[in-house]
Amino acid sequence: MSYYMREIRMNKKKFYQTFIDSISEGKKSFAILLDPDTFDNANAELFLKNIPPQTTHLFVGGSIVENGETNNTVLSLKKYSSLPIFLFPGDASQVSKEADVILFLSLLSGRNPEYLIGQQVEAISKLKNSSLEIISMGYILIDGGYESEVARVSNTSPMSQENVQAIVDTALAGEYLGAKLIYLEAGSGAKIPVNPIIVKAVKNEISIPLIVGGGIKTEVQKQQAYNAGADMVVMGTAFENN
Question: How far is 102 from 96, CA to CA, in rounded Å?
C-alpha cells in the first residue's frame, strides 16, 4: 500500500485535504495521466509495476474517449494499485463512480460555454449520488507549440506563453471564482512544456495548489516545474510511449 493511501486511511482525511497537508510538509506530488482511449487495460499490471516509485496519483481522462472506456481503465488500475485515482475528464461521459476523485474542471483559458459550464451541468446527475470526492479546478491551456487535441475538441485557443500576465490574471480569476486547484496545461504530447517563468509567476499570485503538465518528458523538465513552484507535476505521453 502506498504512503499516500496509508495517510488517508489512517487519518480518514479527504484526498484534497491530504494534498494540502502534503504541501504544508514540503512534499511534492507526481501524477501519471492515462488516456483510456489509448491505454492498454490488459497490460495494466505490468505498466503499474514500472511506474516511478515517487508516483502519488493516477489521473484518468482524455479529450475524446469512447463511452465506458474510462470506467474500464479505472477498474483495471484498481486491481493492481492502491494509488488514488483522479478522473481528469474531457466531458461528462467520462464520469466513473469507481474512481476516488473527479477534478471538476472549467476551461478558463477558452470562452466556449460548453467547457466553462455546459459539460459540468450535464455531469451533475451522475455526480450528486456518487461517492466521488469533487474538487473544483481552473484549467488553463497554454500554447505547447502545436494544436492540441484539447484545443481542437473544445474549439478554443491556448494562451500564449509570452503573455504571462494574462495567464496569471486568469489563474487568479479562477481562484476568486472558487477553484481549489489551478492546472497549467501545455497539452498532451506538447513540443514545449509550460515555461518555468509562468509557473513561478502564477504560484506567486495564487494561494491554492498549482498543478503543471503537458510536454514534460524528462526529469530535468519535471524538476524545473517543481523548482518554479508546481505542487504537482503530471506526465502522461512519456510513460505511455515507454
Answer: 9
72-106 CB burial, b ≥16 within 10 A, e <16: ebbebbbeebebbbbbbbbbbbbbbebbbbbbbbb
- Tens digit of pLDDT for each residue in 147-202? 999 999 999 999 999 999 999 999 999 999 999 999 999 988 899 999 999 999 99
DSSP letter assigned to residue 98:
T
- Domains of the chain plus CATH, in order, are 3-11+29-240 (3.20.20.390)
| DSSP strand pairing (232-235 vs 101-107) | unpaired
Where are the alpha helices (H) located in the chain, listed in sequence order?
A: 3-11, 15-24, 44-49, 69-80, 113, 119-127, 149-154, 164-176, 196-205, 219-228, 237-240
Residue that the C-alpha cell 476523485 belongs to: 101
- Cα-based distances in Å from 85 to 89, 111, 178: 12, 29, 23
| Global pTM exceeds 0.90 | yes
Tell the residue number behind the cell numbers 472549467, with chain if given. 106
Tell me the pLDDT band of 99, cut-offs 50, 70 and 90: very high
